[in-house]
Amino acid sequence: MADERDDNSNKPEAPPDPGRRKFLKGVGVVGAGAAIADQLLLHASEQAKPAAAGGASVEQGAADVVLNVNGQKRTARVETRTTLLNAMRNHLEPQVSGPKLVCDQGTCGACTVLLDDKPVYSCLVLAVDATNKKITTVEGLGTLGKLNEVQTAFVEKDALMCGFCTPGFVTTISAYLKKNPNPSLDQVKEACKGNFCRCGTYPHVFEAALSAAKTIAMNNPLALGTESEVRS
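The structure corresponding to this sequence follows.
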């Protein structure tokens, strides 16, 4: 029995499990990498804070924005993900409620506004990106006492039913008639293809657009130019 014990004691010890050693080593590397990544992300976020679009002041996911709406500078504090539509309707006092929230996906055109005189879907524009730009909504196109030509034509031609799409159509057509004051029916349809009317009042909308164009021509014939120029 003693010989057997002596023989066992002289046997070399089994080497450590290489799989376990590699696992522990890997855990250490991953932990160090995670710590470095945290520091890099923190540094990047600190660097990004002062770099908000349009000069907006950004801090911890919120931004102080200055919105030039219908000729008036309005300020609001919003999340950086807040859309221009949301900011105007829910973060300004008094609110700007002309642009309507319908699809919130840039498909219906009810929220159309003019951004530096170009039609855009305000549900797809971030408020921080609209800072210090010229924003014109349907309210800025005319007043109750003095509607613009398109607004007047919409009333005269009964070009609205529920009214949710009306601000978008009026804004789109008003901008288009400045670009082309003497459009054909097909050109009006093409200009309005980004606006959707669930009530189906398209014939009245197009009639109102053409009527407004005639009124503009009567009030300012020099704006027409030659027919070949405006319909080319």
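The chain is about 40% helix and 15% strand.
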